[in-house]
């Protein structure tokens, strides 16, 4: 009984926010691939990143595999890949993104809207 229990930090403490733009190299989609989505039963996440074409204004570049939570304040968890890309294309440069590293335990109930009830 003398062992001390370690209190685990909540996954939301590990959220990273970054602001990126991509210069004159076309669309963000060309330099930052978005994978996953609700149609695959996954959260949207970052695929391949061409870091030479991105400019970071704040925070660190999103890494390959990072789970995408928000784009300019719009939650994208639970959206299809196509809808996530539409949200990203809707905003002009720079784009503010909130991501979390993979491996952090995220339950689907953590990202549901507060008034949502499962049936």
UniProtKB/TrEMBL annotation:
List the CDD domains hit by this protein, alphabetically. PDZ0_MAGI-1_3-like
Record's keyword annotation contains Transcription regulation: no
| Cellular localisation | Cell membrane
**What PROSITE patterns does this protein map onto?**
PDZ (PS50106)
**Limits of the PDZ domain:** 65-103
Fetch the InterPro entries from UniProt: PDZ, PDZ_sf
One GO term (biological process) = signal transduction
How does it sit in the bilayer?
Peripheral membrane protein
Q: Does the keyword field hold Transferase?
A: yes
Cellular component terms (Gene Ontology): cell-cell junction; cytoplasm; plasma membrane
Give the record's keywords alphabetically: Cell membrane, Kinase, Membrane, Transferase
Chief location of this protein within or outside the cell: membrane
Q: Which molecular function GO terms apply here? A: kinase activity
Q: Which domain of life is it from?
A: Eukaryota
- Which PANTHER family does the record cross-reference, listed alphabetically? MEMBRANE ASSOCIATED GUANYLATE KINASE-RELATED, MEMBRANE-ASSOCIATED GUANYLATE KINASE, WW AND PDZ DOMAIN-CONTAINING PROTEIN 3
Q: What is this protein called?
A: Membrane-associated guanylate kinase, WW and PDZ domain-containing protein 3
Which species is this UniProt entry from?
Takifugu flavidus
The beginning of the lineage is: Eukaryota, Metazoa, Chordata, Craniata, Vertebrata
């Amino acid at each position: 009984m003398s062992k001390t229990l370690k209190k685990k930090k909540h996954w939301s403490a590990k959220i990273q926010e970054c602001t990126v733009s991509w210069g004159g190299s076309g669309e963000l989609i060309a330099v930052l691939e978005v994978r996953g989505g609700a149609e695959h039963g996954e959260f949207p996440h970052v695929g391949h990143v061409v870091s030479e074409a991105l400019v970071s204004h704040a925070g660190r570049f999103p890494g390959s595999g990072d789970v995408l939570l928000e784009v300019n304040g719009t939650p994208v968890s639970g959206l299809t890949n196509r809808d996530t890309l539409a949200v990203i294309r809707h905003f002009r440069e720079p784009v503010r993104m909130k991501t979390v590293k993979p491996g952090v335990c995220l339950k689907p109930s953590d990202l549901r809207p507060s008034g949502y009830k499962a049936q």
